[in-house]
Amino acid sequence: MEILCICAVELPEKVTVYTTLVGLLNSKNFEAGQMLVAMLFKQMREFMKSNEWEKAQRIIRFISDLVNCRVVEISSLIVLYRSFLEAAQEDGIPQSRSDFFVFTIMCSLPWPAEELNETKGQDLDKILDGIGKYVSKRKKDHVKILRVWHAEKPLEQEDYIDNLWSQIQHMRMEGWTEKVILRPYRAFHSLLLDAVQHTLPIFVPPPHTDESDYPIPRVIFRMFDAADIPDGPPLPAVNNINRYLVEDCLIRTLHVYLDRKDCAAQLLGFHAKNRFPYHYMIVEVVFGSLFLLPAAPNIEAFYASLLLELCKSQPGILPQVLAQATEMLYERLETMNLTCMERFIRWFSHHLSNFQFRWSWEEWVDCTDKEPEHAKAIFIREVMQKCLRLSYHQRLLETLPDKFEPLIPKEPTPVFRYIDDETNKIPALPISRKLIEAFKAKAPLDQVEEILNQLAGEKKEEEEDMEETEETEEAAPNPLRIDVFVQSLLFLGQKSFSHTFSALAKFHPLLKRLGNTEESQIFMLRTIRDLWQNHQQMICVIVDKLIRTQIVSCPAVINWVFSEHMRVHFTEGFVWEILNGVLKKMDTEVGKLNRELEDVRRRASKEDGEMSGDEYDLSATTASEGQIEKLQENYEAAQSEQKNLFLIIFQRFIILLTEHIASCESRGTSFQTNWYIHSIQRLEQIFIMHYKQVVKYTNTLENLLFTSDTDQNLLRVFNNFRSFKT
Predict the structure, then answer these.
(1) Contact indicator for 435, 510 with CB cutoff of 8 Å
(2) Which long-range contacts (CB under 8 A, 24 or more apart) does 85-88 make?
(3) Are 282 and 218 within 8 A, CB to CB?
(4) pTM here?
(5) Are 13 and 56 in contact (CB under 8 A)?
(6) 254-301, pLDDT tens digit by residue?
């Protein structure tokens, strides 16, 4: 029985096979059927309590199909659906909780609908009427921030509940028929006919608590319509239940089979594939899963390897479908969500690296005529940057047409300030050469520091340029020493990441002393950018290393990203790779401290329970309390720093975008420039990618930053974010 319960959850694509087996068992052994139903019901409640909502839905679908196998009474299932509707209409609960119960009814309904309609038609109609009333009153502000396309054409991006509701209504009009679900129990109708059926226990939903974490609403991704598929069986309409059933099976296959070969075999072996344009539907579902916001269910490399495996398995069909999909995505880049476009960039560059970077580049030559901040120009430029990480510069020059040259990255070599003949007049040049000689001679740290101290009191001709920062920032107290040392050290370690890491590790104490203030750290980051301005990956890797070794702080990196010095890179992907990396590290640190605190509390509670009377050890208890207090302080300090990071980021965004809007309005021009569209989507991206962290500080953000005085365009982004977590 336990194995069947596991199969119901882990193999949802075979639900009807296992319900048929349960039906046959129940017809022979009433108690076995009763035991299984009780186990399923208990497991469903446990999944709900532990926030495993999708697993709970799989069990409910399994229970719904048991009606067809004469294991569960039809009236009992009706009562269960009614209890779900009542749970959805409770007062004082978030919409996401109500959505779960309503969606659970609808996603289970195609299995027992025909049987319910025949025997309990009026009851079914009442349930559908209740669903219709709920759907009509739902708020859907989240659609704007979760959809892949910002435009309604050529295909509308529908909320997942709206879409399934329209499909259920269409199925109702068609007499509750469908062409996808396998129903093996029909072959055993005579054996199942006289089986004794079971009544489901009364369902009492687990109460809503602060720890309840409900599924986030989704927007259904659409790429193809009937006109895009010239040959073969027609694509089901978006309001056709068969579209949902096929896509649901494909999606669940992606969730269950995480090995690319197994997953590809399961996708291509779908039992009803000859009735639909199946290859197009596979590609659409895979991209839809990759682009799912706020986060894809699987790591991005999984989708890349899966699509490669699918192309190998079906070389005559799938590569052409995938190429067509890629062309369509490229043509719609202007209306594509920026986070999704970045995932598209990473997938496409990985895909190209497996096919010798060959592509019909001439068909995309229109991107060279666009302004630098246009979506197509950004896409090609970022794809080239990612390809450079997977290949080498000369390969790109040989592969791409000459017209693409302006978008190809420069050769990734350092721009060393103290080697060019034109800089020979710089007083610090001899010091740089001495430092490099000392590095090569493996001189000790104190000797290197002694050489660097020779710069004390000297003035560099260009030092005033170095010290130029935003009016709101202070100059670093020792810019010349930082510049000479960091440039010389990293120039010597240019051969590889390992050489660079080794250099940073050896001179870690000196780097810590040079970066003893936030202004010094920002200037150090600026120096790194100046040296490796033609090698974005090296900048990302070095900054990551500096954060991990605590040479620079997270706030320093954030302020550097938004500094005037980095404004030229504001629309380039590596900047946001660094910023999002900082936020992820901060979240990892907060999570680690929280787990440590909870572990110590659990151990202390367990030890207290085991001690009694004369065994009570006051000194041990005091030590444990002291450890808990220290961990609590560290955890609260990390949380405070995390909140501060988000406040800095959102404040900088508000200042930057408000200034842009005011500047455009004063000139009488539209502020909806390509730069503004890109920047406002970066703001959305922070909300989306880090929603679990940002949601904890929603009230603080509302009170301090996103007030009624904030520009309505920025306030709209904040309100859209709040809508999908309410």
Answers:
(1) no
(2) 85/127, 85/130, 85/131, 85/134, 87/205, 88/134
(3) no
(4) 0.91
(5) no
(6) 998 999 999 999 999 988 888 999 999 999 999 999 999 999 999 999
